[in-house]
Amino acid sequence: MISLLKALKDIPRNAYYIGTKVGRYETDPTKMFDFSREKTLWSVDHSLKLLGLDYVDIIQVHDIEFAPNLDIVLNETLPVLQSVVKSGKARYIGVTGYPVSVLKEAVECSNIKIDTVLSYTRDTLIDDTLKKFLPFFQSKGLGIINAAGVSMGLLSNAGPPSWHPAPEHVKEACAAAGQYCKERGVELAQLAQHYTMAQPGIATHLVGMNSQEVLRSNLDILNNGLSALQKQVLQEINTQFFDKIKPVNWENIEITELRKKLEVLGQ
């Protein structure tokens, strides 16, 4: 956050877009999610204070599938965000989530205008679920944000973090593909980024970059495309690894685990 503030200090506000989220907060399972009016208003003001800004461009209800039910998002969170937009603290309202069907349901049922949907890890080398929903989202005039083209590290030579929710057989197949790429001097993440950024119908892509090396890698694949070797390896890993595990998803795994934790805690 401090680095971001320093980077933006001398840049005109109208030269960039800022999006932030409400709904998901702490690691403590009992305090992780809160879609109430009070918490939402607090969160917006807290984010603005941290950012040192008067407004954000997009205010998003994050991970809506974790709400006790969609009604609280539709009848409490979204109306609050509408008031936030009217007050000038945000320009647009969005929803985010892993199950794309839940994003669709929210858009269909909401009386509040939703401007953007953020889907992550659902238009990748191993999961193209988002494609099925693009015509609907486009028909509603939504800005479609596609995030996590490397599937939160699954599609990289280094592999995902230990907490990644994917089933073990998926992790094993992706690790084998990563090793195959490494042995041929190719970075799997570049293949994955090239694929996802080439998909039509997406307004923008969110790409995580925590080092200059990753930044240069992403810029290289964006500007130069795939080499002949990379194209060959991509075809080979699809045939040898990814085609054998499709379709891939981990819907309900995280929700089930959270509910189990809450039951143990008596919540």
UniProtKB/TrEMBL annotation:
What Gene3D superfamilies does this protein's entry cite?
Answer: NADP-dependent oxidoreductase domain
InterPro entries, per the entry: AKR, LGALDH-like, NAD(P)_OxRdtase_dom_sf, NADP_OxRdtase_dom
Q: Which domain of life is it from?
A: Eukaryota
Which parts of the sequence belong to the NADP-dependent oxidoreductase domain? 6-237
Any one GO molecular function term? L-galactose dehydrogenase activity
CDD domains per the record? AKR_galDH
What protein am I looking at? NADP-dependent oxidoreductase domain-containing protein
**The organism of origin for this protein:** Cryptotermes secundus
